[in-house]
Amino acid sequence: MSPRKSAAEARRTRERIIERSVAIGSVEGLEGLTIGRLATDLGMSKAGVLGHFGTKQALQLAALHGASGLFTRLVWEPVADLRPGLVRLRAFCEAWIRYLEQERTAFPGGCLFTAASVEFDTRGGPVHDTVARFMLRGRRLLVNDLRIAVEVGELGRGEDPEQLAFELHGLYMGLNQELQLFADATAPARTRRALDRMLGAAPSAGTAPRN
């Protein structure tokens, strides 16, 4: 086997481990990740899994980075080139609803970050810090477009972007709970109505380049 082919197969094996880790973590929590469980699920040896990650914590961190990449690809990238401000914000919010409602292949148990934020909220260490960093990064995306929306007059001058981002973040944490804990099929529509109350009716989308 050539070194190039060997490296490609190693990358694909690592990707398979991460994909399965994300799925397990969304259902059972990151503490549910074990080398033995993954080896069984993927038809690998424990040594094979350990060879890629070495420790459970490294596996947990890899799952979080994998989940972050999926969120970016599914929610942020499709709307990133829309006009900054309320247009892009509302498109981002709609993509986020669809992600929580429909993405069951990668996240059969719902949003991994919502689950991990509850699982690790009172613990210190690298996993806690990584969960917090990724969730704050998502909130900063909200704040950025909310601030632009206030500056250009799409939202009232008295609106506080940080406060609105705080409320929006809580809304989506609640949506994930309604979908997962209560299986409430009306929750996405309720979320859209809440968005209309908070932000006003969604403006027409555009694809003007970002400044």
Q: Can you offer a commentary on this structure?
A:
- The protein has helices at about 5-30, 35-40, 45-55, 55-75, 85-100, 110-120, 125-150, 160-180, 185-200.
- With about 210 residues, it is mainly alpha-helical.
- Helix 1 (about 5-30) packs across helix 4, helix 5 packs parallel to helix 8 (about 160-180) and helix 8 packs antiparallel against helix 9.
Comma- or semicolon-separated keywords:
211 residues; mainly alpha; 0% strand; elongated
Strand content: under 5%
Indicate the structural class: mainly alpha
The DSSP helix count reads: 9
- Residue stretches low in confidence (pLDDT < 50, at least 5 long) are 206-211
Number of E strands: 0
Mean pLDDT: 91
| Inertia-based shape | elongated
Distance between the termini: 48 Å
**Biggest sheet record:** none
- List SSEs in N-to-C order: HHHHHHHHH
Fraction in helix:
over 70%
- Rg for CA atoms: 19 Å
